[in-house]
Amino acid sequence: MTLAVENALRDGERVGVRCEDGLIAAIGPEVSSRPGDETIDADGAHLVAPLVNGHTHAAMTLFRGSGGDLPLMPWLEEKIWPVEAKLSDEDVYWGARLACAEMLRSGTTRFWDMYWHPEATARAVGDAGLRATIGAPLFDLGGSPAELREMAHRGLEALDGFGPEIAPALAPHAIYTVSEESLRWIAELSAERDLPVQIHLSETEQEVQDCLAAHGARPAFYLDRLGLLSERTVLAHGVWLDPEELALVAERGATVVTNPVANMKLAVGGVFPYPAARAAGVAAGLGTDGAGSNDSLDLLADLKTFALAQKHAAADPTAIDAAEAWAVATGAAAPRLGATRLEPGAPADFLLLDPRSPELGIGSLTADLVYAASGAVVDTTVVAGRVLMRGGEVPGLEEVVVDAAERAGRLGL
Ligand SMILES: [Zn+2]
Predict the structure, then answer these.
(1) What is the pLDDT of residue 394?
(2) Separation of CA 2 and ligand 1 centre (Å)
(3) DSSP state of 205
(4) For residue 381, how far is its CA from the centre of ligand 1 (angstroms)?
(5) I need a surface site. Which of 46, 139, 244, 248 has the fewest CB within 10 A?
(6) Cα–Cα dist 116/159, whole Å
(7) Ligand 1: distance of its center to the CA of 201 in Å?
(8) How many angstroms separate the alpha carbon of residue 189 from the centre of ligand 1?
(9) What spatial distance separates the first Cα and last Cα of the chain, rounded to whole Å?
C-alpha cells in the first residue's frame, strides 16, 4: 500500500512525501505521486512530526468530569480505585478507543500507557491505528509480592502477539504502592527482558518526605538503590526532584515525563524543574496523565501550559523557548519515547496542519504551535502510512463517543 502527499509545506518549502509499507520512502520538493498511489493534495498544509504523549492512562476517559476537585489521595481512594476494581475488558476498550480518537484528532500518534486490562487498551490502539507502549499497573500494597509477580506475568502475556505498534512495559504504580522487594524484582525482570519501566515518581512533596522517612533517601536515590533507575526507566512527574537527583537521573539515562496540567489540577504545588533538568542532561518528555486528572488528552494544548509554567516558575521568559518546548512534546528531547523523524526509512507517521487555521497564519509556525494553537489545527493524521483522520474527520468517531459514554454511565460515576 502506498500513500503520496503532495503540496505540503515544510520549513517554508513545498514538499511531497511517499510512503511504502508503513515507512517514508521519499520526502522532498521533487517527490510526487505515482500511478496507483492513494494521493492527498495537502494544498499548502504544514507537514510536521506528530506528538508523543509520554504518560497517560487512556481508559480513564471514563472518569472524566468526576471527582475532579479532590486532593490526590482522597480522589484515588474514594473515587477511582473502587470503580476501577469493577472495570471490564469492554469498559477499558471503549475508554481507550475514546482516548485514541481524542489523541489522533489533536496530533498525538504514540503514547505511553499504564492501565488495567492492558490487552483491551492494546486492542483499542490497534483498532484506532495508533502506537503505544503499554504496561499493566503493578501494586502490592494490600497484597503480596507473589501476587504482584503473577500480575506482571499475566500483563506481559496478555500483550503478547500484538503487532509492532504495541510495545509491552512494566508499570509499577509508585514507590508508595509497591514494596521494596517487588521493585527489586521488577528491576531484574526489566534488565533480563529489556523491558521499559514506567513509574510515577516524586509527584507530591509528601511522597518525598515519606520516602526519606521510610528509606533514608530521596525517591530517585531510592529507585537507584533498587536497580530501577536505568535507560529503560520512564519517570512520570518528577516535580520534586532535587539537583542531586537530576544529576543521577541523567547519569543513569532515565527519562522524565512532565505532566503540568495534571500537576496543576491536583495542585501538587510545584512544577518539574525543567531548566535544571536540561542543564543536568535529563531526557524529558511531555504527558497529559489520565483524563481523570487532566481532563483533556490534547497534548498540543498542554504544551502551552508546560512552556508557561516553566517560564513562570523560573520568573524568566527565556527559561524555555518554543523550539525546545516543541522538541519535548514530539519526543525529540527523549530518545526512549519514540519520536518520529521526517526522513526516508522512518515510520510514516506525520501530521498535516490546516494552514487556514486562524492561529497559524501569522508569525513563526513553531511559536504559534506552542503558544496559540490547540489540537484543532490538526487536519490530517497519518500513522504507518495509513490516513487515520482527513479534513478533521475520524471515521467511526460517533460510535466511539456514544459507546464510551454508555460504558461510563453504567459504572455509576
Ligand atoms: Zn499517571
Answers:
(1) 97
(2) 37
(3) H
(4) 25
(5) 244
(6) 12
(7) 10
(8) 22
(9) 44
167 neighbors 198 (Cβ within 8 angstroms)? no
Query: Per residue in 47-62, pLDDT tens?
Result: 999 999 999 999 999 9
pLDDT in tens, 354-402: 999 999 999 999 999 999 999 999 999 999 999 999 999 999 999 999 9
Distance, CA 340 to ligand 1 centroid (Å)? 24
Instruction: Decide the pairing of beta strands 166-172 and 23-28.
Output: unpaired
Centroid of ligand 1 to alpha carbon of 388 (angstroms)? 26
How far apart are the CA of 233 and the centre of ligand 1, in A? Answer: 15
Centre of ligand 1 from the C-alpha of residue 4, in Å: 38
CA distance linking residue 346 with residue 341, whole number of Å: 6
- Neighbouring residues of the ion ligand 1, judged by CB less than 5 Å: 289
Reported as a single tens digit per residue, the pLDDT across 251-287 is: 999 999 999 999 999 899 999 999 999 999 999 999 9
Map residue 25 onto helix, strand or coil. Answer: strand
pTM across the whole model: 0.97
Instruction: Determine whether 13 is exposed, middle or buried from the number of CB atoms within 10 Å of its CB (0-12, 13-18, 19+).
Output: exposed
Q: Name, in order, each residue with C-beta under 8 angstroms of 173's C-beta and a sequence gap of 6 or more.
A: 114, 137, 138, 139, 199, 200
pLDDT number for residue 142: 85
b (16+ CB within 10 A) / e for 254-280: bbbbbbbbbbebbebebbbbbeebbeb
- Determine contact, residues 310/328, Cβ cutoff 8 Å: no
User: Is residue 300 packed enough to be buried (19+ CB in 10 Å), middle (13-18) or exposed (0-12)?
Assistant: buried
Close Cβ partners of 278 (under 8 Å, ≥ 6 residues apart): 284, 324
Q: What is the DSSP string of 349-404?
A: -EEEE-TT-GGGSSS-HHHHHHHT--GGGEEEEEETTEEEEBTTB-TTHHHHHHHH
Can you name the residues that pair with 255 across neighbouring β-strands? 234, 283
Q: Residue 386 Cα, ligand 1 centroid: separation in angstroms?
A: 29
**CA 68, CA 74: separation in Å to the nearest integer?**
11
Q: Where are the beta strands (DSSP E) in 42-130?
A: 46-48, 51-56, 108-114
